[in-house]
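Sample pair:
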Amino acid sequence: MIEGVKETNFQFPNQQDFYRGKVRDIYFFEDLLVMVASDRISAFDVILPRPIPFKGQVLNQLASKFLKATSDIVPNWIASSPDPNVSVGLKCEPYAVEMVIRGYLAGHAWREYREGKRTLCGVALPDGLKENDKLPEPIITPSTKAKEGHDEDISREEIIAQGIVKEDEYIRLEAYTKALFQRGTEMAAQQELILVDTKYEFGKLNNEIILIDEIHTPDSSRYFYKEGYEERQQKEEKQKQLSKEFVRQWLIENGFQGKDGQEIPEMTDEVVNSISERYIELYEKVAGEPFHKDGNQNIANRIENNISNYLSNR
């Protein structure tokens, strides 16, 4: 069994800073950043104890594909991908909100709705909806970006009132979010999938809004299989989906939802392998192409060497 990359601790010439997120290790330089997609996996804003082999490669390659496919809508940060797990690009000042957009009532939105809430992030929802129903139109339900702990739902009005984002810029973020979601929806449909919900993150560079981070990956998005969707809804059956939700469901079934005092269930080799295979399945279905595993046993060394070569030749 190939061991996933849990973390990296590289030191490169002219490196200025380093940041470790939930999934990515980011190396900062004067005019660019290097983002390494590790094989860490998080759920309920908690990093799980074991890495998932090939997960980082899946995320990085999908993100690169979709950023390239949406570059006509909004400029993005990626300049190059010198390794299957690595993207290199522009160093931007990130906005302190995530732009979550939902076309269907699923996941967190459904859990809130089921508890009786009919307003989510300031957006009113009609009565009588079932889990996974299509919404009358896509809704934007932003969240704050927490450096530690849980992201929090926040309304458009609160974002503007608190000065988190200027109103004119927030209006542009909303427009970009809707256009990106429409493009993602169209690309998903080509693969017989439904893009259910997703999130986008933006930054600024030289007063220009830039799309940053990843888009349309299993960590940031939820997909349903299009075939049989209507029939399953009519029968009130669970939807067949491609997302990280299966990891959350496994945790919930084993008594963990990220709450104080709860213990993360044991991640056996069987569980780790099954999650890895689900990520690869998702890649092939979403991307519409085969996934090529790198059989290199020391993936961390490969990543470091490819980054070093890129930096020395730029």
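The helical segments are 55-69, 107-114, 156-161, 167-190, 229-234, 245-253, 269-287, 299-313.
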